[in-house]
Amino acid sequence: MECSGGKPITWAWYEFYPSPSVEISGFTVKPGDVIYVNVTYIGNGEFNIVIKDITRGGETYAVTGSVSGALLSSAECILERPTVNGQLTALANFGTAYFGQDYTDVIGTCYATVGGSTTAFGNYPSTVEIIMTAYNGKILAQPSSLTTDGSSFTVTYVSSGK
Question: Which of 4, 30, 72, 155 is deepest in the core (most CB within 10 A)?
């Protein structure tokens, strides 16, 4: 979500990094929707992404793409600050975003499969919390700690950065 002229604008998107993000035309998202995303490595540098809006009756979008040289060594749940015309925007006050089954009741979220074993992010030895900051170091959004089962966390708005 971003704001333009004081009004929220929402869209769904995906990216096969380092390629740019792709907006999903016709996939409606609204603040408060519960979104399920599954990324599966299918081999030969190809990944399948499934995005499902649980709140809106299960509208689903799926796409396959490739990432050359993917290390297959990490997984992420991300809340990003939008970029418009190559410039970071002010961060919209999104309140709190919820990730994982403990907050969304969606089974299997914030899990990863490594070496054939699937478990919650928090069960891996190198879980990293990233705090969103402005260039001047001001905190924009703050993640919580993982829940006790390692499967869920929140990100809370702190500042627009402007």
Answer: 155
